[in-house]
Amino acid sequence: MAVDKGFRFTGVECVKFAVEDLAEACRFAADWGLSYVPAANPEVKLFRTVDGSEVEVVAADPADPRRTPIGGGSGLCELVWGVEDQATLQALADELGKDRRAEFDAEGVLHSVDDLGINLAFRIAQRKALPYDVTRYNAPGNADRINRRAPAYKVAKPREISHVAIGVDDAGQASRFYIERLGFLISDRYADRGIFMRCSPAGNHHHVFFMNARVPGTRFNHLAFKVRDIHEVIGGGQHLDALGWKTFAGPGRHTISSACFWYFQTPFGGSWEYAADEDIVTAEWEAQDFAAVAHIFSEWTFGLEKSDGTLKGPISASKEQKP
Ligand SMILES: [Fe+2]
């Protein structure tokens, strides 16, 4: 059941990684189309999308907890959420401080942790969408691009971070903290498999996706970036492929969230996804339970076993999707 805490979240601001091969990770991020931004600390490599979403990466160091990703190896160190105002930051500090660390740093960023041990941070949102020419499409009987070629992209230029996916032992259990303590909403669910959640009633279909993983423990699975259109998914993917980076899945089209996608293996401990045309929802959106049938899951072979039927996640308002 959704618990409205009144927190005004905006989305994922920054994803912090620690990796075993920092040079390779930086090469991948640049090839992906992110802009490198020199950081005050030379050990921290900072990359940005067009709207200011950030990826921070440091060399992993098992002796330093701040540089040890959850699950070990290369992976996620901290997930930074954006909020609209200072009042939300303070309310989050009060809520989380009841039973866990909730500390502001010198920059006014609040740091805490979820029930799985994933480091979380919260800051006033810095992302800012910039305008661009919206792609026009021709459909039978509905031509909207006359005497103009469709856009073609030699490289992708990701506009913003869309969502983070994390493999866990029990997605239902993992989602409870986000629903009950942060007020996140369930957007859809793969029955027995995974839960898609958004941080605010209106906006992106999902900002975080927890899915039952084959390997025990909690581990970064993938990070998705929004690009302008399907042409940019294809152009970006072909560019990565030409550079020798390996496809993880795609190009394809998701059943849930409607996105066209292309995933690549990365040096970040999971894959990165170009995504276009994802569903945008409001409070009126009705969550659905998608049945665990093979043709739906063919897109989700991501190192995860077929459903074992153990997920008992909350989705009280869902409708069953007939296969
Ligand atoms: Fe995704």
From TrEMBL:
CDD domains: ED_TypeI_classII_C. Residues 160-277 form the VOC domain. PROSITE patterns: VOC (PS51819). It comes from the Bacteria. This is VOC family protein.
